[in-house]
Amino acid sequence: MFSAFHIPFMQKALIISLITGGFLSFLGVYIVLRRIVFVGIALSQITACGFAFGFLLSINPSICAVIFTLIGVILFSVRQTEKKIPDESVIGLAYALASSLGILFIAKSAQAETHILNLLSGSILTVTDSQIYVALIVFSLCGLFHYLFYKQFIFISFDSETAATTGLNIQLWNFIFYLILGIVISTSIKASGVILTFGYMVIPSIIALLIVRNMKKVFFISVIFGLIATLFGLYLSFVLDLPSGPTIVTILCILLGLSLLIKEVWTLIYSR
Amino acid sequence: MTEPLIKFSEVSLGYGHKEILSNLNFEIYQNDFIGIVGPNGAGKTTLLRAILGILKPQKGEITYKHLGYKLKFGYVPQIQTINEKFPLTVYEIVLMGRYSQIGIIGRPKRIDRDKVYSVLKYIDIESLANKTYTELSGGLRQRVLLARALVCDPDILVLDEPTNNLDLCSEKMIMDLIKKLHIEKNIIIVMVSHLLNVLINYVEKISFINGKEFKIYHIKDAITEEKLSEVYGIGVRIGNLEDKKIVTAR
Question: Does residue A112 sit at the B interface (CB-CB below 8 Å)?
């Protein structure tokens, strides 16, 4: 198995996947528990739309993606005082708009079509050294932030009303939470693609929540499953000549199915 | 009369351009045990948010007495506002009440851990410290939230519908505990509820949110058939069962 990872492009693919997979699996715990799964997919789509816009105007697609993501972050993190449109409708609207605009930008851009296909399924095998360094720096900083401000992120996610009474600025901390999410998505999407990025954000944390009932263990198990699926998914994609992103997502889904099955059997045995 | 700890002067409250409560004039004093009654959607939670200082008034002024330090609030929210999916332990949840003392990037110290365990012991849930919140019954969950509110040594305990969806036994247990806190720890209690029969047997002062004038009454002045009929707009009868009062519609 490990012979596959002696090849340089596979080594780079493994490194970037482990970094993105690990961190997105960690963030995914918040996403699933806060029931903002569709914010994740909408932000991914907004980022992809930003890339398409960059290709259309022949300006730096990565910078456009970051700007678009930032707009999405502001949209999702600002609480409406008078709710004219329900939150979930805003998310759906943003998703529909970003998807439509993305397709329109591609339709009018000469070079975007091939790039956009890569954005959907990822281009992990062609990742560059600079992409790895950027991901390492960005994810280390985001990770450090989450470590330092664990208390604040947990409190606003568990009980924002009481958190506000202790002096926490809920709007600000929500904005920081979504900003980190946006930065992570826009950094990982170019290499991992929309499908894998979304898969990492949702599936490992669902598995972890099925297996353990302790907050810190949930974070740990989620990351472990993200990493295991990355390792096996990349290996299988190499051996069977399959696209890496969808292979990793499929492995994650198989692991989820197995976890469900084991949990059911376990419950059956112990309920007797 | 002593100086009030909190004073509302001509206060109007609401969200955005929408006004929910207007012309609020009342005071909260040391040793008060106040119950605020009103139907769902009347603005009870809005009023509590203003008392806690997290909702700024649209008009008027709210003044807080300085006790040499800023007034400390303990807050027990409506249990439905909690995201119970988080697999947090009782200890972790109660520790949240110490976060403002721990500091923005600080880690819990021995004093914080000791404080959490002493409050858990006082509330009689020390044995549940390592249990997850989701494993607990409604009554025990409410005690955990009470413990979290107490762990910062509050001057005022503000509770939003603390007996909502609780069975009779849990309801009595929670109300007895709140009364004990008021008497033994000298904590000012401000609680809202839509359950008049629960409040009138515990609180010392009561107020009604019903779109008319908002005023805080001493319980003996408010719980009369005449007054309650005026407040609720229907005939009301007050009966006694052992040492408890029961209000029923005629």
Answer: no
Instruction: State whether A151 and B99 contact (CB < 8 Å).
Output: yes
Distance (Å, whole) CA A227 – CA A143: 16
pTM: 0.90
Any CB–CB contact under 8 A between B41 and chain A? no
- Laid out side by side, the sheet with B18-28 consists of B18-28, B6-15, B59-64
Where b means 16+ CB within 10 Å and e means fewer, A11-38 reads: ebbbbbbebbbbbbbbbbbbbbbbebbb
Distance from C-alpha of B69 to C-alpha of A33, rounded to nearest angstrom: 37
Q: A51: distance to nearest CA of chain B, Å?
A: 35
State the pLDDT confidence band at A113, using cuts at 50, 70 and 90.
low
3-state helix, strand, coil in chain B (%, to 5): 35, 25, 35
Contact flag B17-A166 (C-beta cutoff 8 Å): no
What is the amino acid identity at position B7?
A: K
Inter-CA distances, B95 with A52, A261, B99, B109, B174, Å: 46, 36, 7, 11, 20
Closest chain A C-alpha to B229 CA, distance in angstroms: 35
Please provide the size of chain A in residues.
272
Cβ atoms of residues B156 and B188 within 8 Å: yes
Per-residue pLDDT tens over the stretch B26-42:
999 999 999 999 877 78
B136 shares contact with chain A (CB less than 8 Å): no
| Residue in chain B lying closest to A219 (CA) | B87
Residue A79: pLDDT band by 50, 70, 90 thresholds?
A: low
Structure-block tokens of residue B171 = 């309801």
Closest chain B CA to residue A144: B105
